[in-house]
Amino acid sequence: MRVCYFGTYRAEYTRNKIMIEGLRRNGVEVIECHETLWHGIEDRVQAASGGWAHPQFWWRVLRTYAHLLWKYFHIPDYDVMVLGYPCQMDVFLARVLTWLKRRPLVGDAFMSIYLVAVERELVKNHRLTGQLIYRIEKLALRLLDRIIVMSDDYITWFQDTYGFSTDRFRLVLTGADERVYHPIAVDSDPAYFTVMFYGTFIYTHGVLTIIEAARQLQDYADIRFVLIGSGPLKERAVSLVAQYALNNVEFVSWMEPHELPTRIAAADICLGTFGVTPQAQITIQNKIYEALAMAKPLLTGGGLTVRRYLTHSEHVYFCKMDDPQSLAEAILHLRAAPALRQQLAAEGYKLFVAQFSIEMLGRCFRQHLMEMTSA
Q1: Alpha-carbon span 185 to 296, nearest angstrom
Q2: Per the structure, how many domains does the chain have?
Q3: Which domain range does residue 41 map to?
């Protein structure tokens, strides 16, 4: 089977790299027909905050799709076209191209761009943009022959929000790129019990809950929190640490994926997600899979989807969502239970290899595409 991976998808985003590599490991020929439209998170936020109305933005869009079309007409024939994440903007051109060739069109919706905009408060602050994103996403997904998402609960969300039939969706979990995230031996600092978070400082991740838990644990001289990343809530998080005069929290600027594993390996436990947003409930975030892939004990809030796939005290340790006291108590429990930490690390890694590796996810994705080509 030959697949055309088409669009302006984020080529360096973990989801797309895993999906493409997974197909290749399962014998699928993948031809990438890609052109870059977005230049990082801030670029997308600026466009969603009203930048889309400027002629310069639309000139960039036209130029990008012109280059993409030129590439498309120079690739060999294919059996199915797949749109990488985010696929919503690419659907309209891709639908025309696949109709002309009479080929099926599959989109990796992965996450809703509308829900992401809502949770970043872009819709609240820019209502017209929010309505536009909603309508674009609804129409774009309706034009796809098959929609790939990351969890069963996300399928339910799409169905409830847009009225789509569930038979149009197929599930491919997120996983982690084990070429980057895998067990490595790094000595941790014996003077500290290091609790590590990394990611985007947004409500879904519950960074402010982590700060409040650190406040409750400030009298434990050996417990140290390391928070790596950036995002809209970072300034508030830093302000809270200063307000509480906490000396047990260290902020580290955003690190590239290849720089993270050494820091992860040196931590005693890794933190997942603690927010109470819809995204926190219906997704398993990259950082959760990556901790499993690196055989690190993981502590996270017990959201709906994460409880569906992971077992408390076996693969992961759960605490209550958005509950600093529950998080603080869980940290103290794990700190006092090295055998439990070793068990979580070993069993979590075993589960990752069995269900969430690149090869396993690629096998699942390939089956969905074969279903389309044999229809």
Answers
A1: 11
A2: 2
A3: 2-175+357-373
pLDDT at 119: 82
Distance of alpha carbon 302 from alpha carbon 284, whole angstroms: 10
Supply the CATH number for residue 239's domain.
3.40.50.2000
**CA dihedral defined by 9, 12, 13, 16, rounded to 10 degrees?**
60
What are the tens digits of pLDDT across the range 75-98? Answer: 999 999 999 999 999 999 999 999
**8 Å CB contact between 301 and 320:** yes
Contacts of 217 (CB under 8 A, 6+ apart): 223, 248, 328, 331, 332
Same domain, 336 and 363: no
Does one domain contain both 6 and 120? yes
Cβ–Cβ < 8 Å for 133, 123: yes
Comparing CA positions, the residue from 154, 146, 166, 172 lying closest to residue 16 is: 172
The reply to whether 221 and 160 lie within a common domain is: no
